[in-house]
Amino acid sequence: MRKSWWKILGVLLLVYTFIAGLLIEVPRNPQxxxxxxxxxxxxxxxxxxxxxxxxxxxxxxxxLRTNKHIHDIASRQYAGVGIxxxxxxxxxxxxxxxxxxxxxNKSVFNSFDTIAREPKLIGAAIALLVYAxxxxxxxSIQDMDKRARISAVYNxxxxxxxxxxxxxxxxLLDSLHPGGSEGNPALDPGSASAKMRLVFYPAIAxxxxxxxxxxxxxxxxKILYEQKLSQ
Amino acid sequence: xxxxxxxxxLLLFMFFGxxxxxxxxxxxxxxxxxxxxxxxxxxxxxxxxxYLVRLDRKISKLEKNK
Lengths: 231, 66
Prior knowledge:
heterodimer, A: mainly alpha, B: 82% helix, rod-shaped
């Protein structure tokens, strides 16, 4: 194992998240009830995704500046784990939504017409699809240098697309999701109590560190694989 | 006088109306079964972390071998 202190830190933070996340006092919100604890899991997936996409974006720029192949591999693997986190965030959001957003007078299926119009869902879907296209684009180019350069440029574009699709448009429109037109989701002082923050921030760090760990493993595997190919 | 009582009653109602508790499902916490859930979640986490550690070790060994 290499440089293991931050890996241990990530695991410890997650153990803390799992224990404290289920035991601390939460605000007694009539709509959310105990599901408010999903803040430590669902929301952290999106935070992890954003941080991993930022790393991927930085590595893409570093590739374009230095032309070193390692940055290209790193950029690809961080984006891959970021997409994994995003999909997990979307799935957990779908479960959470089916219990808190549905109109209690209608079935889940019949509530779907309002839920499908949620700007947050549409924005997140656009962002994830733009990143999915990154993987497709990459694999469609055979030449290694061309693939690295084109996908690095596309990565910068995909990162730029995160701004309107996640950070701007959904926050201007009304939504059932917290942080619609009234401000920032999760970081807004009204939506999480001070006590929940004591678990929330370590949870973000823990999940992100695990994501980084997985990404570094994939990078090292990819390097080994390419060395084997060139032998 | 009647008006005064009505106003007073309304104020009282507003005060206690705000203080009313939101009913939450506290059963899991009260009977301690929430610890069972925590145990299950920690076991899954431990399994996943162990998997990552073994993968990390294997990759390190491969890196050393060449």
